[in-house]
Structure formats: C-alpha cells, structure tokens
Design a protein that fits this description.
Blueprint lengths: L10 H21 L10 H8 L4 H34 L3 H6 L10 H20 L7 H33 L14 H19 L3 H36 L12 H22 L6 H28 L2 H6 L12 H20 L9 H28 L2
C-alpha cells in the first residue's frame, strides 16, 4: 500500500487504459458499415467479424484490444480508489489540500467520466439489440455525467475559492501546465453530455445533452485561456519543471475532446433543431485542431527531448507518476486523427473511403497509437500497477 506515497495522478494510468480501449473502437466506428445508426453496434460488428474479408481480421483484433484495455482500466481504477481512500487518512493529503497540487484531485472525475465512456463502448459493441433500448439508456448516461460533473465542480470550487480568498497560489512551482488537468476534466464531462445530445431522437434528451456539453465546454475554454497564460508565463520566467514537462502535451487531449464535442453539437443541432450541417465547416474545425495538436506535440517533444525526460523517466530508472500523462496525448491524437480523416476529408470528397490514400493517412496515427501502447506497458511495469 502506498499511503502517503500515493498521488491522485495515479488515476491517469486508469484513464490512459480507458482511452486506449476507446481508441480501438474508433477503427470499428469508421471502418465497419453501420447505415442508419450513428455508431457500430453488436449486429454490425458481428456481421463484419464473420464476413470473411480483411475487415474480419481488423474487427477481431480491435475487439480483443477493446476488452484488454477495458479490463486494465477497471483493474487500475479499483486499485487507485483503494489507494486513494488510504491516502486521504494521511497528513500528506491534508498538505495537498493547501497547495497548488490540490488541482490533481480533478483526475478523479476525469477518470470516472472516462469509465462511463468505456462502459458505453462495451455495451454498444458486445450487447445484442442494445440500440433498440438506447433511448432509455441516454437519460441514465446523462444522470451519470451530472453526478461526475457535480463532483468536478465541487472539487474545483473548493480549490479555486481557496486561492481567491487566501491568495496563496505558488507561482514559483507553476512552471508547467499541470493546472490544466481541471480543464481536461470539465472537457471530458462535456463530451460525455454531447453523446446523447448528438444521437438521441427525443428533443428533450437532445437539448439536455447539448446544454450540458455547452456548459462544461464553456467552463473548459474559459479556464483554458487563464491557465495557459499563467502556465507559460511561469515557464518563460523559470523554465519548465523537468518532472512535469509532459503537461506540455495536455493541450492535445483537451483539443481532441473539445473538437469531438463541437462535432457532436453540430450533429445534434442538425437532428432536432433544423440546423443543416455543413461538411465544409467540419473540414475547417478538424484541420484547425489537428494543426494546433501538431504544433504542441512538436513543442512538447522538443522540450522533453532537450531535458532528457524520456531517457530518465520513461526508459531510465527515475520514477514519476506524472509520466502517465504521456498516454492521453497519444490516444487523443490518434482518436481525433480518425475524425479528421473521416469527417474532415472523406465527407468533403477529398479522400475516398478505404482507398490507398485513406489508409496512408491513417498510418501516422496508427504509429502514434503503437508507440503510446508501448509507453503504457513500460510505465505499467515500472510502477507495478
């Protein structure tokens, strides 16, 4: 048991496993035909699995990986919850509540929101005829995200109000972007709300989902502006904190989640609000987000390479639980790459579905996913989780 040596950042391990599970669902999402349904359900997946083509192999492989990483997600989540309950009884936890690091508690609602997404993927993929009762499940999903969203707001308000009252924010130790974990959490809740908002055929469910998505995305965007400026100001003055340098990549999953949220909002408005969807706008949106992800990805890699982060904390002997923050950017880049290719390029006639060029565009994203998986298992072994 870790007790005082535990950190809420350990939840990033479970978050990464959940994200990897969802990332393999993206292949099914865009390669398996599912006419008339917004995502590939059991019937479509089973049909692809048994049709005896190259897609059967891809489907089987993806299903195995979805289950593998889902199991790891729940295993790590249970371990983290047990460790966290013991950690709360220590003096170190009380010190955490009066420091900049209190914001790391936002990893809990962030991970719980991912858990709901993983459950949704497992249900859609493996439970026959689930889609016939999905309109009854959407309200349950909304309730789940309301609970997680309330939990996130409660943690953040305790932290933010303390800073505003006491004015004891430590700018000296703010030379990284770790404070943006709160933005990550709010954005994750927002994208969760956006799913029923995009897919439900009942206007009430649709509207509640869209409002929740807009509400939490607006919070995330406001805080993104504030904390991005503060974080870079401290880094320009002091240089980046070596141990927390992976936080430079946190903007990548935030951009992915916000981008998917906006896409889902567009679909939701098209379904029930008589607002026609323009494919050209999806090209503009996805291209902008991919451009920002690439520039932050290159910047973060350049900085971490320069300070020797990978040699010391990933491949070397040094341990830092913050290293698990490397998993989410890799997952997020791959996931949004699939949205860019399919909604940005294919839907605008720039690429043909399943053409050679289509798979060539997928190659760099698949490579990033592969490297992320390698990093995940290396860190899992290092921390013996």
């Amino acid at each position: 048991m870790l007790r005082e040596n535990f950190s809420p950042m350990y939840f990033l391990a479970a978050l990464g496993a959940g994200g990897l599970s969802v990332s393999f669902f993206m292949y099914l999402m865009f390669l398996v035909p599912h006419k008339g349904v917004p995502l590939p359900t059991f019937d479509f997946v089973y049909s692809a699995l048994t049709n005896g083509t190259w897609l059967s192999f891809v489907t089987a492989f993806c299903l195995v990986m979805i289950v593998l990483f889902a199991v790891l997600h729940f295993k790590m989540l249970i371990w983290c919850i047990k460790q966290y309950n013991l950690y709360k009884k220590t003096e170190v936890y009380q010190k955490l509540l009066h420091s900049n690091s209190e914001v790391t508690l936002m990893t809990l609602p962030l991970t719980f929101a991912m858990t709901i997404n993983v459950c949704f993927v497992l249900g859609a993929t493996f439970i026959p005829d689930l889609w016939s009762v999905v309109e009854y499940m959407f309200p349950m999903a909304l309730i789940g995200f309301v609970v997680v969203g309330y939990y996130a707001i409660n943690i953040f308000m305790e932290y933010f109000s303390r800073l505003l009252v006491s004015g004891d924010f430590d700018f000296t130790n703010n030379n990284n972007l770790s404070q943006m974990i709160s933005i990550f959490a709010f954005a994750m809740v927002g994208v969760g709300f956006a799913a029923p908002g995009a897919m439900s055929h009942y206007t009430t469910t649709n509207a509640i989902g869209l409002f929740g998505a807009i509400f939490f995305s607006a919070i995330a965007i406001l805080l993104l502006v504030i904390k991005l400026i503060l974080g870079f100001k401290s880094m320009f003055e002091q240089g980046v904190s070596p141990e927390a340098s992976p936080s430079l990549w946190i903007i990548i999953p935030i951009l992915t989640i916000l981008g998917i949220t906006f896409i889902r909002i567009t679909f939701g408005l098209s379904h029930n609000f008589s607002q026609p969807m323009a494919s050209a706008s999806l090209f503009t949106l996805t291209s902008t987000i991919v451009a920002l992800q690439i520039i932050f990805g290159l910047l973060g890699y350049k900085v971490m390479k320069a300070i020797g982060y990978f040699d010391e904390f990933v491949f070397g002997e040094k341990q830092s639980v913050v290293s698990f923050a490397l998993i989410c950017p890799g997952v997020a880049f791959m996931v949004f790459g699939m949205f860019f290719i399919n909604f940005g390029l294919v839907s605008n006639g720039i690429l043909d579905q399943n053409s050679i060029a289509y798979f060539l565009f997928m190659t760099p994203y698949m490579f990033i996913q592969y490297r992320t998986i390698r990093c995940f298992f290396r860190l899992k072994k290092k921390f013996s989780i």
